[in-house]
Amino acid sequence: MSAAPGAARSHPFATLIRIVRQLRHDPRTVGLVLVVPALLLTLLYFVFSNVPAPPGGKAPFDSIGPIMLAVLPMMLMFIVTSVVMLRERTTGTLERVLTTPISRWNLIASYAAVFGLLAVLQALILGGLVLGPMGVTIQGPWAVLMLVAVLDAVFGVAFGLLASAFARTEFQAVQFMPLFVGPQIFLCGLFVPGEQMPRVLEAIAEWLPMTWAADVVTDLLSHAEVSSASWWHLAALGAAAIAALVMASATMPRATT
Amino acid sequence: MAPSVGEAFLDVRDLVVRRGENEVLHGVSCALQPGSVTGLMGPSGCGKSTLIRSIVGAQRITSGSITIDGVPAGSPQLRHRVGYTSQGLSIYPDVGVRDNVGYFARLAGASLQRADAIIERVGLADHAGHKVSRLSGGQANRVSLACALVGSPDLLVLDEPTVGLDPLTRESLWELFAELASSGVTLLVSSHVMDEANRCDSVLFMRDGRFLAHESVAALQAQTGTTSPEGAFLALVRESVA
After folding, report:
1. pLDDT per residue over B64-100, tens digit each?
2. Residue B5's pLDDT band (boundaries 50, 70, 90)?
3. What is the band of A131 on the pLDDT scale with cuts at 50, 70, 90?
4. pTM of the predicted model, to two decimals?
5. From the CA of B79, how many Å to the nearest CA of chain A?
6. What is the 3-state secondary structure (H, E, C) of chain A?
7. ipTM for the complex?
8. B57 and A255 in contact by Cβ < 8 A?
9. Is residue B92 within 8 angstroms of chain A, CB to CB?
10. Is B76 near chain A, with CB under 8 Å?
């Protein structure tokens, strides 16, 4: 019953196809990624709808709305992927799959690819809402706003896959959200610009991926030309996502003690 | 008397496995002949699953060696040659039977036609499109088995595959195991139901991380003057503590 020569390789898209099949049977997760952030953003829009613009200034939602594209994608993707990957770890499917010829990197990359694609859809929905019906205008190119939302979400995916290694139950994975994402929301410049924070907090904020994303959005709000600092922030966001994916694949050894 | 002739397909030598503070396996050795069914029998907690996980390369070993067809266990070139079902289901309950078996077929580099053939072989052709979560425990168990079989492994390591099954399903599984063995597959099947030892070419009796015996059931019963596998096991335990 020996396998034919050449049959030892895993199909490169095996895991990707399987994850897509799972998502097809899981409208809640797809809803959490595509519908919930749009609803939250709409809610926020109406919360601010009667707040007058300060004299000579812009209405508050005109900056808060776009910054949400740096907050919501990371937050929701983190929570979804940390629980999904934890389920693979606790049900024993991860251990079993790793006894087959598949590479660990292929497994992680499959998750990143599927949820990365969802992130693109999510960015299009959120960006379309903000720039369309909500009537927010930005000076910079809209494509860069989409790009920052996608990279923000992909970092959330990668960080969630990594965080799953440090939880034992799905409840614990959910508990990580306020711990790892909460401080980033407070520090990213949404409530108070970094330069008005105490020096220590500002220094910490500069090292947080959500701050990089929020800084890019702030830059796009008032400048037609994307600054080189923003390009660096986008590159850093992508690099942080790749680093988290590499670490995540290192947290799933084939043999455990 | 299976374990004495020919070259062993699975060879475990002086295997020690420590998990945290505990030593779970205290230097066990065994040799399995190709094309045989070996029962791994013993009470729960005796180290069966740890041994099985070591053989499939999911458990780091402390010392000793495990070779499969002469290759160290866990080597990349063995990954398509070893089929494994763990004690839990270890499949995806939220998708269909064909999605599960098809996934493991792709992982092993096998075709989807092969997946359909295996689904038929384990008697689930009528359920191929059903979600695993809607199947009975016994049916889900067979899906898991199909996922292990689909890559046409040379060694099949099954951790309690018959637990919770009705007698009829259990019977048909043991018939399938015998059929696989006659086609050249080497099987190691764990169980804590001692009576299932009767279906195996030879039995490894295990207790507290050690093997008490590796013989055919008939030989063991003759040796201990007992009439059932359970009686033989108890006699061996008494002998070992005496």
Report:
1. 999 999 999 999 999 999 999 998 889 999 999 999 9
2. low
3. very high
4. 0.90
5. 5
6. CCCCCCCCCCCCCHHHHHHHHHHHCCHHHHHHHHCHHHHHHHHHHHHCCCCCCCCCCCCCHHHHHHHHHHHHHHHHHHHHHHHHHHHHHHCCHHHHHCCCCCCHHHHHHHHHHHHHHHHHHHHHHHHHHHHCCCCCCCCCCHHHHHHHHHHHHHHHHHHHHHHHHHCCCHHHHHHHHHHHHHHHHHHCCCCCCHHHCCHHHHHHHCCCHHHHHHHHHHHHHHCCCCCHHHHHHHHHHHHHHHHHHHHHHHCCCCCEC
7. 0.90
8. yes
9. yes
10. yes
Test A100 with B151 for CB contact under 8 angstroms.
yes
- In this complex, the residue of A7, A97, A254 whose CB is nearest that of residue B110 is A7
Binned at pLDDT 50, 70 and 90, residue A7 comes out as very low
Q: Encode pLDDT of A58-79 as tens digits.
A: 889 999 999 999 999 999 999 9
Does B181 contact A at CB distance below 8 Å? no
